[in-house]
Amino acid sequence: MKTYIIKTILTTSIIGLFMTSCNNSPTAKEADVKEATEDLIDAEADLDQAEFDSINDFNTFKESIQIKLAENQSVINDLKSKISSKGKVNRDIDEVEINKLEKRNTELKLKIENYEQGPEQKWALFKVDFNNELDDLGKSISNMADRNKKK
What we know:
- The chain has one domain (35-150).
- By secondary structure, the protein is mostly helical.
- 89% of the residues lie in helices and 0% in strands.
C-alpha cells in the first residue's frame, strides 16, 4: 500500500511539474516577442551609434594626417630649394633622397584617401601601421633637414 501511495504522489508531482513548466499562454509569448523587439531596437541603435562614432573617428584622424602630410610636403619643398646652392655631386645625392621622401609622402596621402572602413580591429591595425609609417617619414625628413643644416 505504501508503494502505491508513493507511486501516485510521484506520478502526480511529475505531471504537475510538466503542467506548470509548459506555459503556452499567448500573453507570455507576446511579452517575449515584445522584449525581443525592444532588444533588437536597442541593438540597432547601438550599431548606428558605433558606426557614427567610427566614421567621426576616421574623419578626425584623416584631417590630422592630411595636415601632417601637408607640413611634410612644405618641408620637402624647402629642402628642394636649399639643395640648389650645393655642388653637383651633393645636389644629385640629395635630390634622389628628397624624391624618395616625396614619393613616400605621396604614397601615404593615397593610402589614407583610399582606405575603406571595415571592422574595428582592421581600423585599429591600420591606424597603428599608418602612424608608424608617418613617424618614420617624419624622422627621415628631419634627418635630411639636419644634414642640410650642417653642410
